[in-house]
């Protein structure tokens, strides 16, 4: 199959699609750029009378007329080609041969005869083969080829990115984390991670031996001390933190739910707006109040709270009780911002 028109080859694929839509071409949707060039070339050539007056296609028909009007040289007969090639080779060798100096004319007289004989014996087949070697492409052709390959690579990279599902996964994670509930869980997870180092410290378990072939050293492995799960040293501070940071604020946020009260719905009809089962603003306020009373003022409610657990939680959490209040302030501001955006 012959190559497409040079004017079409210089166009981008989006321009080719626009030309196809303009001329009413069908069945090109799944074609690549090179195939679309050939299809458009054949279609426009068959409908020259209909589209030749279109100004957007003037470049195509101008290029086509130039290509059709360029003369094609006829191949000379083989015998004439051999003779002319032989004459050119002989003439070139004679021109390259330096003329002898007057004083050395007698000593160098055999060399021209030898060169002429050498040129006469040069096979015409080798000269003909050399004349048929393709010349290097022009800079315009090189730039056009580079542009086509660049467009093909960009389209392939875009196709692979779309098929990988990275964009869909990123959007799903973003949607899941862009909620007030996600912020509340993030703050609670940060506090729990800091508390874990205090109530469930790591203990030495075993050592991975060194492997000289890989150049590795001995590596000790530490795991959480699971025996602490059956002691009050673990459950006392964990229970206190769970009550003050999760359960009691959630209980108040469920019953003092301002978001649910602001959108009353008839009985038996589902709510059309998103409502929180636990009001995040009330949750943050109650968490800040009870944490300040217990961890800052050290109120034990008549001995119900172990003061040793208060000290351990204060020492484990980042910033002590001030860190808990900071986290509650952050979640409260986020809940207010979310409520403003939904208005």
UniProtKB/TrEMBL annotation:
Q: Where are the transmembrane segments?
A: 204-222, 234-256
Q: What is this protein called?
A: Cupin -type protein
For this protein, the record's InterPro entries field holds: Put_GTT3 (IPR038872)
Q: Which UniProt keywords apply?
A: Membrane, Transmembrane, Transmembrane helix
Q: Please give the residue ranges the record annotates as the region Disordered.
A: 92-116
A single GO CC term for this protein reads: membrane
Give the organism the record lists.
Answer: Colletotrichum scovillei
């Amino acid at each position: 199959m012959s190559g497409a028109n040079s004017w079409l080859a210089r166009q981008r694929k989006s321009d080719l699609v626009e030309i196809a839509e303009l001329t009413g071409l069908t069945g090109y949707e799944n074609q690549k750029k090179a195939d679309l060039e050939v299809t458009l070339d054949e279609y426009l050539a068959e409908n020259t009378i209909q589209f030749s007056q279109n100004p957007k296609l003037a470049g195509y028909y101008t290029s086509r007329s130039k290509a059709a009007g360029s003369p094609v040289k006829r191949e000379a007969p083989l015998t004439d080609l051999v003779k002319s090639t032989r004459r050119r080779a002989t003439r070139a060798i004679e021109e390259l041969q330096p003329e002898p100096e007057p004083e050395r004319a007698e000593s160098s007289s055999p060399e021209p005869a030898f060169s002429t004989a050498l040129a006469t014996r040069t096979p015409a087949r080798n000269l003909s083969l050399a004349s048929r070697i393709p010349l290097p492409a022009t800079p315009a052709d090189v730039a056009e080829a580079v542009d086509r390959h660049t467009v093909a690579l960009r389209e392939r990279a875009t196709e692979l990115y779309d098929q990988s599902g990275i964009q869909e996964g990123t959007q799903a994670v973003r949607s899941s984390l862009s909620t007030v509930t996600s912020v509340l869980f993030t703050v609670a997870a940060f506090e729990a991670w800091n508390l874990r180092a205090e109530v469930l410290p790591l203990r030495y378990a075993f050592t991975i031996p060194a492997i000289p072939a890989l150049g590795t050293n001995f590596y000790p492995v530490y795991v959480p001390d699971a025996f602490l799960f059956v002691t009050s040293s673990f459950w006392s501070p964990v229970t206190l933190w769970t009550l003050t940071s999760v359960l009691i604020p959630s209980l108040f946020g469920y019953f003092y739910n301002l978001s649910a009260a602001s959108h009353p719905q008839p009985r038996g009809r589902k709510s059309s707006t998103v409502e929180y089962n636990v009001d995040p603003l009330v949750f943050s306020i109650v968490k800040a109040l009870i944490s300040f009373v217990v961890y800052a003022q050290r109120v034990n409610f008549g001995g119900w709270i172990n003061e040793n657990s208060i000290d351990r939680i204060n020492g484990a959490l980042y910033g002590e009780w001030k860190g808990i209040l900071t986290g509650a302030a952050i979640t409260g501001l986020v809940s207010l911002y979310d409520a403003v955006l939904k208005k």
